């Protein structure tokens, strides 16, 4: 199960009360006031964590309460601050207040932290209330309430890996084989009309997000086919996979690679210079051994180990997923 929407209840800590206290002095019955301030109530923050891809960690715990500030004490001792709570959420999480629906934050940068409820300030101790007319103030302040909210988390995934290639290259087939996403697959071009995301599990802990986008053709930058508008959906990915159909009798791999790379470059240098791996598809239907050898030579000439897959037999899929998991792990920004 992939959870991308959840409601939480969050309570920041109450500020600790200030103390009413007086110095003990041998000579006098009562010395001056020395009641310290209460501690700050704990706040609740959320932090964008690139390693997470779902809101599943919140499935069983939906209520979070930060610590109360402790009371101030005599000798102007400040009360201990309440404990903060830090919740990790996936990149792309949107936080909204309920019931207003107001957007509080959108976490887009790894490590970005936002405060969702702020702890109450501690009350002032009676040491602050001494005056010329009142040398023994009994007054101290209570702590302030911490903020309490119901919030809604919505996850808009940002893909780690973007798929590019000609129509029919097998992009959607790959996504359907390695993730729970079920994009439409058919033997005609432009089956995929909208980008689709799938979460790929590498093992029990690690996963990444793959984005399937509509195919590109020659002239896409000038609007041919569906154009290159969809490339903006893979602009934020960390790497691209360029799928090349090795079983297509109408097109040599060299040509397929050249055309797609031309379109990527025409779209943006940023996208073109992203890490990009070639993946040969339809290995099961490959007739021409020479073609395979040429494709492998191109990969090696780029310092890349050749990757060949079949969405039909499943050959090469697990190795590809492990490779991607390892690559992304190395790229991990702290
Ligand atoms: N034999 C074989 N056929 C495949 C393989 N992968 C995909 N196909 C077939 O190729 C055709 C196109 O597959 P899709 O996955 O829809 O291709 P796509 O790249 O998503 O195509 P568009 O969405 O149109 O850009 C379908 O008929 C698939 O069944 C494979 O590994 N082997
Ligand atoms: Mg498709």
What do these coordinates show?
The chain has a five-stranded mixed β-sheet, with no helix packed on it. The chain has helices spanning 171-178, 253-267, 269-272, 289-301, 317-331, and strands at 5-11, 44-49, 63-65, 85-90, 93-98, 103-107, 113-117, 148-155, 161-165, 196-201, 207-212, 239-245, 276-281. The chain is rod-shaped, with a radius of gyration of 30 Å. With 334 residues, it is α/β, with parallel strands linked by helices. The two termini are 27 Å apart. It is 16% helix and 23% strand. The protein has two domains: 5-155, Distorted Sandwich (Spo0b-associated Gtp-binding Protein, Chain: A); 161-331, 3-Layer(aba) Sandwich (Rossmann fold), CATH 3.40.50.300. It contains five helices and 13 strands. The structure holds guanosine-5'-triphosphate (GTP) and magnesium ion. Guanosine-5'-triphosphate is lined by residues 165, 167-173, 185-187, 189-192, 214-215, 281-282, 284-285, 310-312. Residues 171-172, 183, 191-192, 212 line the site of magnesium ion.
The structural domain count equals 2
Strand order of the largest sheet: 3-1-8-5-6
**Order of SSEs, N→C?**
EEEEEEEEEHEEEHHEHH
Give me the count of strands: 13
**Count of DSSP helices?**
5
CATH domain fold name of the largest domain = Rossmann fold
Secondary-structure-derived class: alpha/beta
Mean pLDDT figure: 91
Text of the CATH class of the largest domain: Alpha Beta
What portion of residues is helical?
10-25%
Strand content: 15-25%
From the coordinates shown, what is the CATH architecture of the largest domain? 3-Layer(aba) Sandwich
CATH superfamily of the largest domain: P-loop containing nucleotide triphosphate hydrolases
Bound molecules: guanosine-5'-triphosphate, magnesium ion
Cα separation of the termini: 27 Å
In the predicted model, the low-confidence regions spanning at least 5 consecutive residues are none
Specify Rg, calculated over alpha carbons. 30 Å
Describe the global form. Answer: rod-shaped
């Amino acid at each position: 199960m992939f959870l991308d929407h959840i409601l939480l209840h969050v309570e920041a800590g109450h500020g600790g009360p200030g103390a009413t206290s007086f110095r003990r002095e041998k000579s006098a019955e009562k010395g001056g006031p020395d009641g310290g301030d209460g501690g700050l109530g704990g706040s609740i923050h959320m932090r964008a964590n690139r390693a997470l891809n779902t809101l599943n960690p919140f499935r069983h715990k939906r209520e979070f309460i930060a610590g109360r500030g402790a009371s101030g004490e005599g000798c102007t001792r400040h009360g201990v601050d309440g404990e903060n709570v830090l919740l990790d959420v996936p990149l792309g999480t949107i936080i909204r207040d309920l019931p207003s629906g107001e957007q509080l934050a959108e976490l887009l940068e790894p490590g970005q932290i936002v405060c969702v409820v702020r702890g109450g300030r501690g009350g002032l101790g009676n040491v602050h209330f001494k005056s010329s007319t009142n040398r023994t103030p009994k007054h101290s302040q209570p702590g302030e309430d911490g903020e309490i909210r119901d919030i809604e988390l919505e996850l808009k995934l940002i893909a780690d890996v973007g798929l590019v290639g000609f129509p029919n290259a097998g992009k959607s087939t790959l996504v359907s084989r390695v993730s729970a996403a079920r994009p439409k697959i058919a033997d005609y071009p432009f089956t995929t009309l909208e980008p689709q995301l799938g979460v790929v599990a590498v093992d029990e802990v690690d996963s990444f997000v793959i984005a399937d986008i509509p195919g590109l053709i020659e002239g896409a930058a000038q609007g041919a086919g569906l154009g290159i508008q969809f490339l903006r959906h893979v602009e934020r990915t960390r790497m691209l996979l360029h799928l090349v159909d090795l079983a297509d009798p109408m097109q040599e791999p060299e040509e397929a690679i050249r055309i797609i790379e031309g379109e990527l470059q025409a779209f943006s240098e940023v996208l073109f210079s992203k890490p990009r791996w070639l993946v040969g598809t339809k290995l099961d239907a490959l007739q021409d051994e020479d073609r395979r050898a040429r494709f492998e030579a191109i990969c090696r000439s780029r310092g890349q180990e050749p990757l060949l897959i079949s969405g039909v037999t499943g050959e090469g899929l697990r190795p590809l997923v492990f490779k991607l998991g390892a690559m992304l792990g190395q790229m991990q920004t702290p």
